[in-house]
Design goal:
The complex is a heterotrimer of chains A (470), B (186) and C (294).
Chain A lengths: L20 H10 L1 H25 L1 H17 L1 H14 L3 E5 L2 H14 L4 E4 L3 H6 L1 H7 L3 E4 L2 H9 L15 H12 L7 H18 L2 E4 L3 E3 L4 E6 L3 H7 L3 E7 L3 E2 L2 H16 L6 E5 L13 E7 L22 H5 L1 H6 L10 H12 L18 H5 L6 H11 L3 H17 L2 H18 L4 E2 L7 H4 L4 E2 L7
Parallel strand pairs in A: 1-10, 2-3, 2-4, 4-7, 5-8, 7-10
Antiparallel strand pairs in A: 5-6, 6-9, 11-12
Helix pairs in contact in A: 2-3, 2-12, 3-12, 9-10, 15-17
Chain B lengths: L1 H13 L3 E5 L1 H14 L4 E4 L3 H5 L2 H7 L3 E4 L6 H4 L8 E5 L3 E3 L4 E5 L8 H4 L2 E7 L3 E2 L2 H8 L9 E5 L4 E2 L7 E2 L8 E5 L1
Parallel strand pairs in B: 1-12, 2-3, 2-4, 4-7, 5-8, 7-12
Antiparallel strand pairs in B: 5-6, 6-9, 10-11
Chain C lengths: L40 E3 L17 E4 L3 H6 L1 H13 L3 E5 L7 H5 L3 H14 L5 E4 L2 H14 L6 H10 E3 H7 L11 E5 L2 H6 L5 H7 L5 E2 L15 H4 L1 H17 L4 E4 L2 H14 L4 E4 H5 L2
Parallel strand pairs in C: 2-3, 2-4, 4-5, 6-7, 6-8, 8-9
Antiparallel strand pairs in C: 1-3
Helix pairs in contact in C: 5-6, 7-9, 11-12
Classes of the chains: A alpha/beta (470), B alpha/beta (186), C alpha/beta (294).
Chain lengths: 470, 186, 294
């Protein structure tokens, strides 16, 4: 199975993604079905969230979730040390990887050393971030995504569109065509039939895979346990059938104890899909024990820094609280219209626009524009179950961006600031502007503006009288 | 305690699981009857004293269902249902259950595999009513109580496997079991 | 009339000689500067050339922030704001030399440039009075972002002081239970600007003020909490995406059945109206102050 992801050296963003962010936005806007699909997903999510608030007081649960995560990040070094000790006591191996390359090198080396030929994967943002599939495939291993949505995307050679719901932009006919091409045989047309077909095809893979790779939603420092949340059951198979289980986690995903874990594990599905529990939560504390007949013989926990450590103590520290629920995506009017693939990075939506440039560096061509594709409307911050002020972080991320566009705008704002820090020069610019408005807008409207104003009139008129004429 | 059992039953209904209440001496027959109706031909039983106590194995044999005890001496392909009969039912004994969410807490142990419920097409859980607690917080506090050795794996199961990855519509039986039936034992 | 509030009887200033083109002092409505009160401010009562009224110590006095968008696009908006406030019995002064709150630069990631302009604004609005702003967006900038913008700066205390005194126009009316006694008006629909709704957390003050307008009926549109797509420089950086959101908003507004959309923010309105005009959608737009100060 060939990879759909190509590696950018050291970067988080996908490098098979073409065009500028603006161009990708235009492409997405031209897709007639996309926005309708995404918007209905967003609306359904919002309705379910209200049910959660009514039935469980979800909005109050968020305050505690925020406090827990803030405290976790403050205590991060101690929690990680404790986690590391406990996992080792449980018979597992812990690896701290400074970056993607280190993490991939370890996992590929492990697979080679154990003679692994096939890897069964479950959906994981961390492995997407470190581009693990490319590294494994380059080493000659077969990698199978076992989450239904991710498998569909693997067959379609596409990137996911949402953290939780990767393939919601495809309809069932498109899915059936992909399944037919994969199996060279008859595939049912109905949804139940498609799901049953995928179940059996993927069981063939589970029967062969020697290594299972999963992500981690939360790790509990007190007991050295990783928590992995799912609805399908593939993660349980990934973590119980193959001989080796490798769990990959971003270093910030740790809580202190089970009291905290219980709270976050309840908040996560409510925030993510507006549902009061995920079907399966797998709480794994190391490899199989003496006398146990299933479960992996080896358990490896790979903890990736990848630029996260440097965010502690910075103005972006709150972004480390994120539990990757995807709520900010569903809430975002931009995401609802252009989808996750437009962002060109594993993390899309508001949280992706904040953290991708942080992880990649302010000059990265693939991510430095991301914070600007937002009206900073604040719907994301409202939706966030752990109270990350995403709209504020977006503005701060803009200040940090080193894109040519920002530099250019910087000069304009320097001039602006010189003129508008004094009453007299301000009034001169206003009088000049209003004079221009009167000349250009005789019919009550300006249809074309020069200079930076051209972007305004490229899609809308500017009223030269107020209230605007009809 | 009966209030918690009622709440558990209501929550299971919300999760598209089925349930019935049974006395200890009727629970084995109840489970066997449900499996026979579901067309089950083979049952994989967790090696738990409770399964023996409620007489499930005998009841299953009486209705002609093949009985295997965990750990099963089968290859991985057969465990996954790629070989042998397809209509297999995994039988688990939850350590605890959460009434508020309809969640079963399954702990791995030598007699109880990590994957019994998800490798099979059907899942029957034998749940003593006195193991039902109110919230997930209570359940996890007990599961991971100080001084108690942490199980190698704990699975929280809240209803049969489902996926909404195709057209956002929830469809059952994605990877795990298509059904979940809980016999609550008074 | 409420006790303790200075009553102005000369409400309803006549428009200036060349609307929007005057190079003037505190306001751009062509009035001669009046006696300065509190240093460089114009007393904004009525429409006559007369000294500022002697101020009763119990009178409610406010400073009005005109906002740069109102200066540039719709001076009627700040004038209507003043009129509404005065009719409600508030003494309004429009500080001379005011420019902009600095938000365009701040939101675009140029805090240094924003600070230079904001520093000027802090000086212009020095005093103890509440500062009323006919914009949820500019209010949010001062109230929420100034403390951030001036953190660790020598004038941080002044920035925080201004932030504490600044209030959006309809919030001010609600806070003091004021009625501007607007003229009757028909049906309107309300657009909640994001800064008003989320940054200031206020989805009620505008509606409460409109409720007092005789004959006015608010017809709520769908998706009131969704952004219209203006977003300041976002409208210039991603015009097509911005336009898509504007279309959705105009569509929801039209479907409300009201012929006119009102909002507390001029930016949203000129975007929605400008896009509606481009696409031939029949929708009128007015700032809420124009309704209340009518």
């Amino acid at each position: 199975m060939s990879s759909r992801r190509r590696r950018a050296p050291g970067g988080v963003t996908y490098d098979d993604v073409t065009g500028t962010l603006r161009e990708r936005t235009l492409t997405a806007l031209r897709d007639p079905g996309l926005a309708a699909n995404l918007r209905s997903a967003g609306t359904a999510w919002a309705e379910q969230r209200e049910v959660m608030d009514r039935d469980y007081g979800f909005n109050e649960m968020r305050d505690r979730a925020r406090d827990i995560r803030r405290a976790n990040i403050r205590a991060l070094p101690a929690l990680l040390t404790q986690l590391q000790h406990r996992v080792r006591e449980n018979g597992g191996t812990v690896v701290r990887a400074a970056d993607a390359a280190e993490a991939c090198r370890y996992i590929v080396g492990l697979a080679r050393a154990r003679g692994v030929g096939m890897v069964a994967k479950s959906k994981s943002m961390a492995t997407e971030e470190i581009k693990l599939n490319d590294a494994l495939e380059d080493a000659g291993l077969e990698v199978v995504e076992t989450d239904l949505g991710e498998w569909i995307l693997q067959l379609a050679h596409e990137h996911p569109t949402h953290i939780i719901a990767p393939a919601i932009h495809l309809n069932k006919e498109e899915v059936a065509a992909l399944f037919r091409a994969e199996s060279n045989g008859d595939v049912p047309d109905d949804r139940e039939g498609l799901v049953a077909h995928a179940r059996m095809r993927l069981r063939e893979k589970f029967a062969q895979a020697e290594m299972g790779i999963s992500g981690v939603n939360l790790a509990v420092a007190a007991t050295g346990t990783v928590c992995i949340v799912e609805n399908e059951g593939n993660i349980r198979l990934v973590t119980s059938q193959p001989r080796i289980h490798v769990a990959v986690m971003g270093m910030e995903r740790v809580v202190a104890d089970w009291d905290e874990a219980a709270h976050i594990l309840q908040v996560l599905p409510m925030a993510a899909i507006g549902y009061d529990a995920a079907n399966y939560v797998n709480l794994i504390s190391g490899p199989r024990r003496e006398g146990e007949a299933d479960g992996p013989e080896e358990f490896h926990l790979v903890i990736v820094d990848g630029g996260r450590g440097a965010l502690r103590g910075s103005e972006f520290e709150e972004a480390l609280s994120c539990i990757r629920c995807g709520a900010c995506l569903y809430s975002c009017p931009m995401w609802r219209n252009v989808g996750g693939q437009t962002y060109g990075s594993p993390y899309s939506g508001p949280i992706g626009a904040v953290i991708t440039p942080l992880l990649e560096g302010p000059s990265s061509p693939g991510s430095r524009d991301l914070p600007f594709m937002s009206s900073v409307c604040g719907a994301c911050g409202d939706a966030c179950p752990v109270g990350i002020p995403l709209q504020d972080l977006l503005v701060k991320a803009r200040a940090r961006s080193r894109s040519p566009a920002t530099t250019k705008a910087g000069w304009a704002f320097r001039l602006w600031s010189l003129l508008w820090r004094r009453g007299l020069t301000y009034r001169l610019t206003i009088v000049g502007w209003r004079l221009g408005l009167r000349i250009r807008g005789r019919g009550g409207w300006v249809h074309r503006l020069p200079g930076p104003g051209r972007a305004w009139t490229s899609v809308r008129d500017l009223p030269s009288r107020w209230p605007p004429r009809r | 305690m009966s209030a918690l059992a009622d709440q558990m039953a209501a929550s299971l209904g919300r999760r598209k699981a089925t349930w019935e209440m049974a006395d200890p001496d009727g629970a084995g027959r109840a489970g066997a009857r449900w499996m026979a109706d579901a067309g089950v031909v083979r049952a994989v039983l967790a090696d738990d004293p409770l399964v023996e106590r409620v007489g499930l194995a005998a009841a299953l044999r009486a209705v002609g269902i093949d009985v295997l005890w965990w750990p099963v001496a089968l290859g991985r392909r057969e465990i996954l249902g790629l070989e042998g009969p397809g209509d297999v039912c995994g039988v688990t004994v939850p350590a605890l259950a959460v009434a508020e969410r309809g969640t079963l807490v399954l702990e791995a142990s030598p007699g109880h595999g990590r994957g019994i419920d998800v490798t099979s097409r059907h899942h029957v859980a034998l749940l003593p009513a006195d193991r039902i607690v109110g919230t997930l917080g209570e359940a996890l506090a007990r599961t991971y109580a100080a001084g108690r050795p942490t199980p190698s794996a704990v699975s929280l199961v809240s209803g049969p496997s489902r996926s909404s990855d195709i057209e956002k519509i929830s469809t059952l039986g994605a990877h795990g079991s298509l059904t979940e039936h809980v016999v609550i034992i008074r | 009339m409420r006790p303790g509030i200075l009553v102005h009887t000369m409400a309803g200033a006549p428009a200036g000689p060349t609307p929007g083109l005057a190079l003037d002092g505190g306001g751009s409505d062509g009035r001669a500067p009046t006696t300065a009160v509190g240093g460089g401010v114009e007393a904004g009562s009525g429409g006559g050339r007369h000294p500022a009224p002697l101020l009763d110590s119990t009178a409610m006095r406010v400073l009005l922030m005109r906002t740069c968008l109102s200066d540039a696009i719709a001076p009627k908006v700040w004038k209507a704001t003043r009129r509404a406030l005065e009719r409600a019995g508030v003494e309004v002064r429009v500080p001379r030399g005011q420019t902009c709150c600095g938000q365009p630069a701040w939101n675009s990631g140029h805090p240094g440039q924003a600070r230079a302009v904001a520093r000027h604004t802090i000086k212009v609005f020095a005093g103890t009075e509440e500062v009323v702003v006919p914009s949820g967006s500019c209010s949010a900038m001062v109230v929420h972002s100034y403390p951030d913008l001036f953190r660790g700066e020598p004038d941080e205390a002044d920035a925080r002081d201004l932030a504490a005194r600044t209030v959006e126009f309809t919030q001010f009316l609600a806070r003091h239970d004021l009625d501007p006694r607007a003229k009757p008006c028909g049906a309107v629909t309300v657009h909640d600007s994001c800064h008003m709704l989320r940054a200031l957390g206020d989805g009620t003050s505008a509606r409460a003020a409109l409720d007092r307008v005789p004959g006015l009926e608010v017809r709520e549109m769908a998706n009131t909490d969704q952004c219209c797509g203006f977003g300041g420089t976002f409208a210039l950086n991603y015009p097509e995406l911005s336009a898509r959101l504007g279309d959705q908003k105009a569509h929801d507004a039209v479907n409300s059945g009201a012929p006119e959309v009102v909002a507390c923010d001029l930016g949203c309105l000129m975007h929605i109206a400008g896009r509606a005009h481009r696409t031939g959608t029949a929708l009128r737009a007015r700032h809420i102050a124009e309704v209340l100060g009518s």
